[in-house]
Amino acid sequence: MQLSSLLERFAEPETLKMAKLGRELRAKGVDVIDLSLGEPDFDTPEHIKQAAIQAINDNWSHYTPVPGFLDLREAVCTKLKRDNNLDYKPEQIVVSTGAKQSLANVLLALVDENEEVVIPTPYWVTYSELVKIARGKVVEIRTSVEKGFKATAEEVEAAITPNTKAFLFSSPCNPSGAVYNKEELAALAQVFKRHPQVTIISDEIYEYINYVGDHESIAQFEDIKDRVVIVNGLSKGFAMTGWRIGYTASSVAIAKGMEKLQGQFTSGTCSIAQKAGVAALTTDLKPTQEMAEEFTRRKKRVLELVNEIPGVICSDPDGAFYIFPDMSSYFGKTDGETFIKDSADLCMYILNTAHVSSVMGAAFGEPNCVRFSFANSLPNIEKGWVRIKDALSKLK
Ligand code: PMP
Q1: Are 80 and 88 in contact (CB under 8 A)?
Q2: Distance set, CA 6 to CA 131, 265, 365 (Å)
Q3: Domain Aminotransferase class I/classII large, which positions (predicted)?
């Protein structure tokens, strides 16, 4: 049987592949520490779970409107006003089965064959693959650890052509943790003002995991707001990855396009999860803040541990829950058995020798780096990094 050529155009997520390899090793009895995955290791807050239980008891068991229940879309608008001082109406909101689906919706709604989508490196693995599914072209802007893994306005200007359809970025960034401040976003907005053919896709899913201050959205700049698509969701900020609720805020025209796609792909997402989502977005953020405080403690400890290891250049992430060190000084080395050619080899070596799973930087468009999550308990993080240090010391 011949499967479609579409399947050959894109790769499976490297993050999920590494987690699977880790699980396989664990099934063989090996004590594997998972620093590969991108989800909070916390339980969903109690009041959100109660709202879901109530929704089941109230028989919210039928198909839902394609763009989401009105009360949830209103709750998203309330949240955007409360947290971001942004004005949106419910018809501008499309609720989806996770921010991942929202990204697929927006790219498929916008991008035609060979149109360019500009993405600064490093970027979340799924971005480039979704652009390929949409038959668009990825145009990378290479950043570096020295530049804080952020693209400057000049670099973005230089990357834009008449064929550019969209600019796609996350702030806080997965994997680098980079956070664009208001001045940097204002400079980018000035560039986009000069290029009206460009839609700005702003992935803000790590909004609440920010170590440097208030979250800033590029949608705050009125001149370009109508061309910004905010992508967000409940997975990270509310420890709700399995509930599958994402959303976008955009112009009505883009929202209608996404709704049309979603109407054929998935319909409206789970009714119970949506009702829980209303509770998440309209009640207090204390559990979210406590989670962010715990991530702050872990980040501090991880950086202490990593900075003890020679040849690892690691910046202090401003947001999200990953570190993304440059480990290229280990390329070309060997422990006598395994030769380390690149970041993929290094991740496999760390998995097989230290029994710690991570994700190679190449998957994020940054081949010198490796991503390690700190969404794991402090004891596990400490144990993991002692083992990594030991494994790396054997490479000569
Ligand atoms: N964007 C980024 C940057 C992410 O890291 C993730 C999850 N790893 C998502 C979007 C998707 O989140 P979800 O589909 O769970 O809402």
Answers
A1: yes
A2: 12, 16, 21
A3: 31-376
Output the CA–CA distances (angstroms, integers) from residue 395 to 5, 9, 174, 330, in the order listed: 41, 36, 28, 7
Estimate the share of the chain in helix, then strand, then coil, as percent rounded to the nearest 5.
45, 15, 40
Nearest CA to ligand 1 atom 8: 38
Quote ipTM for the complex: 0.99
Q: Rounded to the nearest whole angstrom, what is the distance from the C-alpha of residue 99 to the centroid of ligand 1?
A: 5
Q: Can you give the pTM of this predicted structure?
A: 0.96
Give the model confidence (pLDDT) of 179-216 as tens digits. Answer: 999 999 999 999 999 999 999 999 999 999 999 989 99
Residue of 395, 336, 110 lying closest to 229 (CA atoms): 110
Strand ranges in 78-182 using DSSP code E only, listed in sequence order = 93-96, 116-120, 137-141, 164-170
Domains of the chain, each with CATH number or no CATH: 6-43+287-393 (3.90.1150.10), 46-282 (3.40.640.10)
How many angstroms is it from 172 CA to the middle of ligand 1? 12
